[in-house]
Amino acid sequence: MTKKRTRASQRRQAQASTTWTAAEVGLDPQRYDAMLRSVFDHPVPREQHLEWCWDADHLPFEASSLEWTRFQAVLFGNAGSHLAAFDDEQVGMGLGYLMDNGRSDVPYAAIDPSVPIDEAMRMMRAMPGLWRDCFGPRLANVRARIGSGAGGRLGTTCYMWFDVWPTFYLARELPEWRDAMSALLLELLGMPWRAVQVSALHGIGHSLRHLDGQKAMAVAIDALLSGLDPSDDELRAYALAARLGLVQ
Predict the structure, then answer these.
(1) Are 34 and 75 in contact, with CB atoms under 8 Å apart?
(2) pTM tops 0.85
(3) 118: number of CA atoms within 13 Å, CB side?
(4) What's the DSSP call for residue 60?
(5) Sign of CA dihedral 60, 101, 152, 158
(6) Tens-digit pLDDT profile for residues 50-105
(7) Which residue of 42, 106, 114, 191 lies most exposed, with the fewest beta carbons within 10 A?
(8) Which of 103, 95, 79, 104 is nearest to 40 (CA)?
């Protein structure tokens, strides 16, 4: 009986974790490092030049849907340390590649039928780390009109993630995905950075009608409103619009 309880406890602890090494999720660490270089280690293009992913000579990193799902689980959970070697523009370009189905097929990986739902949910549990350890700290000093493009490529990627990222919309009928998306957005709303709060509100505005936890979202938005800087009328109006699912 003790062994059974221990195994159950270990399973719960594993499910609660949000950071994993490449080896822990079944990846070759060298292959994970190669993926990081392929996606993030590119020079920032000069004005009027295309980003690396649009270069006709660029060869995309080849990986299965399961590998991409695992790559993202490790990356999101360790975003602060694993992306530390790259500047904001490089990180913005690379994350844009991962979120935007106009740039790559990576956003479809976690919802591919070949990927077990537990693998996809592990990726989702890791996602708050991307905002907590990467977007938030890197954009902490950015204060500008919402949607203005402030913060460069990184700021745009943070703001547009839930607008451009098709993954949840395509999986919205599955209760596991609705629960995971609700948990992600609620956690982001509670983070202290304005750019992260805007990102969450943008996501809520687009996704609210597909989420089961609408009451919890309203409570969380009310909590955000109660703690806002009284002079930030723009964020207050944006939050009220998101509460009604009216953000575009």
Answers:
(1) no
(2) yes
(3) 5
(4) P
(5) negative
(6) 888 888 788 889 999 999 999 999 999 999 999 999 999 999 999 999 999 999 99
(7) 114
(8) 95
